């Protein structure tokens, strides 16, 4: 069996990669470097020069070959490697007529607990989102910020005391609405300095969040470890890391109690499996990052199926974050999309490969939408992390 073609496909805000073989098999993958879809697609086309004519079953070898060709690393390279890796695993599953999780050693669970995205422009809307998720049977909510996100074209100013105290008051309200039926995954989106993150963490730990996600920027692992050492809430981080080597350094410094590998960014199923194993060796939980399409969800579920230390799966809702900005309908985008079972879990598919296939008309139905480059500024004109 040989690889015949490797094709990047833009659909809505997603970048997929389709790999076809001379035996008629089609593998599907997705890139997680969503800020740089065009650059990633160009990298996929470059990698195709090597991949066409190769045996698609030599997955680890191709991963090593592409990654170590020039050692440039980083998100664009790894978004491309990841999408290719997922598509190759999909082909392997179809070739052997078995789900990918069977090739990885078999399922350790039949369904994966998920957390639902909660969005809102006010604390009231976020509380309504928690109540709605609870009503639908979810047992965990995430993407749940204690900060109300103003539009990015509005300049920012807040006193320190209001910033921390309002955020803590919001988390208190979230707990009131959630009760003890729903776990809170508090998402900071890298917006705090370490000293702020410690103060906020200490102020909200009485509400027992399941984790505090990305309290500080991902650049300096020691800062994440400092925050983790000062507060009594598990730190979850890793969605911007691009390799298992970075996760190893994070865990060696005690920087996280839960890791958040993005299967579409850390080298696909191959990379994410290694990260789950490194985390397992430290009794650290795995919460795969998954803000993208049902293809990403299907790839994540291979990790959920096989990692003993899996905790929770991010499961996007139907919008891109604001009312009316809808994502493609999963059923019109792919066949085999994972669905919420009404009890806070999604079923893990036993279909061959990763279990999803792109609908033939997806590209026409959902034309590519480029993301605008826009970040928030402080009232003094400097860049703010939001
Ligand atoms: Mg996040």
From TrEMBL:
Domain of life according to the entry: Bacteria
One record GO biological process: amino acid catabolic process
Gene Ontology MF, one: galactonate dehydratase activity
Enzyme class: lyase
InterPro entries in UniProt: DgoD-like, Enolase-like_C_sf, Enolase-like_N, Enolase_C-like, Mandel_Rmase/mucon_lact_enz_CS, Mandelate_racemase_C, Mandelate_racemase_N_dom
Keywords: Lyase
The keyword Transport belongs to this UniProt entry's keyword annotation: no
CDD domains found in the cross-reference section: MR_like
Entry's EC annotation: 4.2.1.6
Domain Mandelate racemase/muconate lactonizing enzyme C-terminal: 120-234
Protein name in UniProt: Galactonate dehydratase
Organism this protein belongs to: Actinopolymorpha pittospori
């Amino acid at each position: 069996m040989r690889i015949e073609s490797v094709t990047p496909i833009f659909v809505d805000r997603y970048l997929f990669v389709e790999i076809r073989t001379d035996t008629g098999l089609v593998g599907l993958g997705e890139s997680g470097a969503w800020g740089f879809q065009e650059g990633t697609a160009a990298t996929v086309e470059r990698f195709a020069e090597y991949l066409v004519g190769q045996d698609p079953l030599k997955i680890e070898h191709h991963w090593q070959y592409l990654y170590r060709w020039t050692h440039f690393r980083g998100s664009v390279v790894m978004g491309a490697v990841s999408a290719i890796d997922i598509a190759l695993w999909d082909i392997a599953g179809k070739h052997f007529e078995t789900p990918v999780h069977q090739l990885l050693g078999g399922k350790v669970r039949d369904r994966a607990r998920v957390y639902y995205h909660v969005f809102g422009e006010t604390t009231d809307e976020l509380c309504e989102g928690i109540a709605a998720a609870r009503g639908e049977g979810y047992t965990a909510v995430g993407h749940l910020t204690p900060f109300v996100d103003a539009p990015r074209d509005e300049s920012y100013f807040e006193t320190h005391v209001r910033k921390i105290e309002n955020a803590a008051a919001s988390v208190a309200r979230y707990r009131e609405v959630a009760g003890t039926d729903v776990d809170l995954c508090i998402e900071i989106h890298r917006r705090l300095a370490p000293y702020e993150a410690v103060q906020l963490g200490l102020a909200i730990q009485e509400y027992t969040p399941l984790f505090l996600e990305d309290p500080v920027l991902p650049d300096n692992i020691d800062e994440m470890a400092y925050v983790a050492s000062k507060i009594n809430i598990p730190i979850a981080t890793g969605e911007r890391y691009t390799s298992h080597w970075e996760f190893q350094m994070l865990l060696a410094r005690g920087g996280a109690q839960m890791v958040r590998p993005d299967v579409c960014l850390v080298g696909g199923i191959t990379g994410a499996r290694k990260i789950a194993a490194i985390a397992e060796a430290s009794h650290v939980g795995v919460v795969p990052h998954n803000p993208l399409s049902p293809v990403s969800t299907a790839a994540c579920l291979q990790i959920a199926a096989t990692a003993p230390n899996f905790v929770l799966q991010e499961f996007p809702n139907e919008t891109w974050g604001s009312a009316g900005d809808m994502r493609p309908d999963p059923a019109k985008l792919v066949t085999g999309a994972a669905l919420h079972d009404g009890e806070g879990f999604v079923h893990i598919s036993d279909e061959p490969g990763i279990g999803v296939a792109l609908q033939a008309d997806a590209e026409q139905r959902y034309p590519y939408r480029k993301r605008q480059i826009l970040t928030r500024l402080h009232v003094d004109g400097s860049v703010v992390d939001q």
